[in-house]
Design a protein that fits this description.
- The chain folds into two domains: 2-26 and 35-178 and 261-350, Rossmann fold; 179-256, no CATH class.
- It is 33% helix and 17% strand.
- It has helices at 86-94, 119-134, 151-162, 179-193, 198-215, 221-229, 253-258, 262-267, 286-296, 321-324, 338-350; strands at residues 23-24, 39-48, 51-60, 66-72, 97-102, 139-149, 169-172, 273-278, 303-308.
- It has a nine-stranded mixed beta sheet with strand order 1-2-3-5-4-6-7-8-9, with helices on both faces.
- Helix 5 (198-215) runs antiparallel to helix 6 (221-229).
- The chain is globular and about 65 Å long.
Length: 365
């Protein structure tokens, strides 16, 4: 599937900067030829304030400084090793672009304290990752951007709106509606795909709205809890991704999430931004999101928006609807849409984030 990117390059290892943790990928079979793209994989740590986060840099060998992409997380893939990010580690170094993944705070090697639903904290973690990469002489400090899918597609634009250090943004499957509306859309489709009745759907929506309105201060906590108590034993409750107890709105991470309007963050982005949706996404209201973006398109001449035929929320084309919405598959997605790969690579080339630093192999050399 990676051939869909359409670009394979020859890069050489850079001898001028060789951290002790760097390792070069070697052929695994005795008859294998050396790969055109050589990638150094380096373990890194960086800090945002007093919090240390653990990451990995996938660095293509190059003779000149290269662009880089910092990966922000989807809600269900907090670890840097998630399969969702594997395609970036293969496709982007082949284009001469470094990739930096890290464990979201509170996960893996990045401590035990989460952001508590505060997207600004997660955005600042991404900014700290960018600032960390700026100190690496092999990376062009003027060409470091962010990539994020789903919740990560909210975090990446927010980070760019908060920092001049981010040169570009790629937001994939990021709903341009608030989190409460997105979750009602998603949970409705989960129930439909699994054959539940309209009555079940109505009951689910009523419970979700009661909790959301409590978070906004218009419904009593006891009334919201009563709505949850009425559905928490339902076999479809797992499709709500909601706890059985309503948290105090003063400390609730969900309140912080639904107060975030992604359109506001997008409008604050002044650098080039690529927004990609899957036409068959059952998790995000793509039609409504695309309409909201169309309404601000004149204000954002550096924004490109594409809806990809046949792709679902994770840019996967092979999974059926019921399977793609099954919670047991959360965090195991592997994008496989050729159009997604083509748009990603061609946009990066058009924006000059690939540049002319690649050297192709020629027999005469």
């Amino acid at each position: 599937m990676h051939k869909a990117a359409g670009l394979f390059v020859l890069v050489s290892a850079l001898a001028a900067f060789q951290p002790a943790a760097a390792t070069e990928m070697q052929p695994k079979l005795p008859w294998s030829a050396p790969a055109t793209t050589q990638v150094l994989v380096e373990d890194r740590t960086f800090k945002n304030g007093d919090v240390e986060l653990s990451g990995t840099l996938h660095m293509p060998g190059a003779s000149n400084p290269v662009s880089a992409v910092v990966v922000t997380h989807s809600a269900s893939s907090p670890l840097q090793t998630a399969s969702l990010y594997d395609h970036l580690k293969t496709v982007l170094p082949a284009l001469g672009i470094a990739v930096f993944t890290y464990d979201r705070r509170g996960s893996g090697g990045s401590g035990t304290v989460t952001a508590g639903g505060d997207f600004a904290i997660l955005a600042d973690d991404a900014i700290a990752a960018v600032q960390h990469l700026k100190t690496d002489p092999r990376i062009d400090a003027r060409r470091i951007g962010t990539w994020g899918l789903s919740q990560g597609g909210w975090i990446s634009p927010l980070a760019a709106s908060r920092s001049p250090d981010i040169a570009f943004v790629i937001a994939v499957s990021a709903p341009v509606v608030t989190a409460d509306l997105q979750m009602i859309f998603s949970s409705t489709n989960h129930l439909k795909a699994n054959g539940y009745s309209q009555g079940d759907i109505d009951q689910m929506v009523a419970a979700r709205k009661a909790v959301d309105n409590y978070m906004r201060g218009t419904v009593m906590r006891a009334d919201a809890q009563a709505k949850l108590d009425g559905i928490k034993t339902k076999p479809w409750f797992k499709y709500l991704y909601m706890g059985e107890t309503v948290r105090d709105r003063e400390v609730s991470g969900w309140r912080k999430e639904i107060e975030n309007d992604p359109l506001v963050n997008l409008k604050a982005v002044t650098v080039p931004i690529l927004v990609l949706f899957g036409a068959d996404d059952a998790v995000v209201p793509v039609a409504e999101s695309a309409e909201r973006l169309k309404a601000i398109a004149a204000q954002m001449p550096r924004m490109d928006v594409h809806v990809i035929a046949g792709a679902d929320h994770a840019m996967v084309m092979s999974a059926d609807l019921k399977a793609s919405l099954d919670p047991k598959h959360d965090g195991t997605e592997r994008p496989d849409s050729p159009e997604y790969f083509a748009l990603l690579s061609s946009w990066l080339a058009a924006q000059s984030f690939i540049g002319d630093r690649r050297r192709a192999y020629r027999p005469s050399q």
